[in-house]
Amino acid sequence: MPGMPLTVLCISTYRKGDEFLRECRRQGCRVLLLTEQKLADSDWPRDAIDAFFYLRRDMPEDDIRKGAAYLARTERLDRIVALDDFDVEMAAMLREYLHVPGMGETTARGFRDKLAMRSRARSAGIRYPEFVHVLNHATVTEWTSRVAPPWVLKPRAQAAAIGIRKIASGEQLWETVHALGDAQADYVLERFVPGDVYHVDSLVFDRRVVFAIASRYGTPPMTVAHEGGIFVTRTLPDADAIGKALKEMNARVLDSFALLRGVSHTEFIRDRDGRVYFLETSARVGGAFIVDVVEAATGVNLWREWAKIEIAGEHGKYEPPISTGQSAGIVLSLARQEEPDMSAYVEPEIVSRIRKHHHAGVIVASDDDQRIRALLDSYVTRFYADFHASAPPLDRAVE
User: Fold this and answer.
1) Which of 62, 219, 307, 388 sits between 20 and 30 A of 195, alpha carbons compared?
2) For residue 150, is the peptide bond before it cis, meaning its omega torsion is within 30 degrees of 0?
3) CB of 235 within 8 A of CB of 328?
4) Pick the CATH number of 7-105 from 3.40.190.10, 3.40.50.20, 1.10.3720.10, 1.10.150.170
5) pLDDT grade, residue 37 (50/70/90)?
6) CB 253, CB 180: distance < 8 Å
7) How many CA within 13 A on the CB side of residue 277?
8) What angle do CA 191, 194, 197 make, to 5 degrees?
């Protein structure tokens, strides 16, 4: 009803999204959080949340619908927002069922299903690595006869590098596929493209990218996840030619994927001949403290701006803040120590230190892009000596 505060139902089955929740509260919204029962005692920003509701990850979809409909008898749900990648489809399902504005199930699938992503990119004429659905064995065999290994086998619905496997031969492929059993159709096989991996983090309003910043990973995330390296990413200057091309391609991706409004983290790879390929996109903020790097470089907090966009909705207005135009980057590593001692890292460009058990990390920012690059390179060397540890790659999201 006009003049009444909006009620926002946020869904997050992982512990994240504090600034989104706080900004909703600052904007005068009633804030409800639907999360997993096991996260009931987590350190959520409780002063920003009016009520908690709980589910189990294995809960049948019909039970989730019934529970949301029961809630809607007493709560007017104006917005439903998924704060984590794994909740995007649930939120879309509930929006359609309860007739709440926002992304529906068909659009959401393009931001979660890697097979749907590649099919949409192909339809839009966007360059992508050649791929085949692991479904019909004759089709897969024909594809592998044309596309030389190595290949990458990717689960269609996981996030980040979880469950991704590099395949070196046809023999290894079929051993892996047969071991998957009935889960084979949940995978897509694509040509491995060696090169540098980039990401573009965006805000979208009324189907228009209103803010975007391009960044380059130090080591590709899949390599970090599988070989135990150190995570590095740094923003690209506004004048950088590759950054400009990435932002243009990102705008094409988000337009063709029909993102009406929200936030997105999209990844690309640039091969050794300079060709850029679309890898994947999402309707969420980037993980691994990328939000903090973006804020250090631009002054723009993607969680807060995303909340403003959702509140503005289909009839409101939104103007993004102006970037401060700095350069920033992060070095992040698993650490041998439970509480790493980072007191030797004293450079004035350090704007944030990562406070997390068995992790060492710093975020740096400066007007001088070359200084940021030099610092990140030196920190990688120092981190390997001071802190670095590795762990086996994840086959699925951590419960």
Assistant:
1) 388
2) yes
3) yes
4) 3.40.50.20
5) very high
6) no
7) 20
8) 105
